Amino acid sequence: MTLEAALVVPMALCSIVLLIYFAFFLYGKCLLTQDAYILAFRSTKQNNTGWEDDPAVFVAERASDILGKKYFGNDKPVVSTAESGKTVTVTGMARACHRAMGRYFLKPQSGWDYKVFMKATKREPAKHIRTFKRLKDIGKDLSDGL
């Protein structure tokens, strides 16, 4: 009974701890994906309302408010922004680094890094609606003339 306990209990304990750390990793990655998309989406909307801010400036100013203190078990993420045409891309990087089990073969000592890319496109729905309505009116005028 002692030999089984000496082998099974540490293995079960390591497995449970590894599952908890992997849950922290997934939790952080899901939160970062959500927050990166919120930042990208809001940076595209602020330009449509006539604000003069660049999307990179908008994201830099509001990143700490959106990210907050909810990344339990992970380092605070680093967020960067890129813009090409009408598309804004927000990149977030963070690490789930835990001190326990650092020397065992199950967990790398450097931690688990994760990176997310979220894109949002600037859209002007009012402009699209006006264009569609105008095309519809032109089509109606042409069909009435025939």
Describe the structure.
This protein is of the alpha+beta class and 146 residues long. It has one domain. 55% of the residues lie in helices and 18% in strands. It has three helices and three strands, in the order H-H-E-E-E-H. Strands 1-2-3 form a three-stranded antiparallel beta sheet, covered by helices on one side. Helix 1 crosses helix 2. The longest helix is centred in the first third of the chain and has 47 residues. The radius of gyration is 25 Å and the shape is elongated. The N and C termini lie far apart (96 Å). The relative contact order is 0.15. The mean pLDDT is 81.
Number of strands: 3
Tell me, what's the shape?
A: elongated
Structural class: alpha+beta
Supply Rg: 25 Å
Straight-line N-to-C gap: 96 Å
**Total of domains:** 1
Strand order of the largest sheet: 1-2-3
Q: What's the order of the H and E elements?
A: HHEEEH
- Helix tally? 3
Q: What quaternary form is this?
A: single chain
Strand content: 15-25%
Mean pLDDT: 81
Report the uncertain regions. none
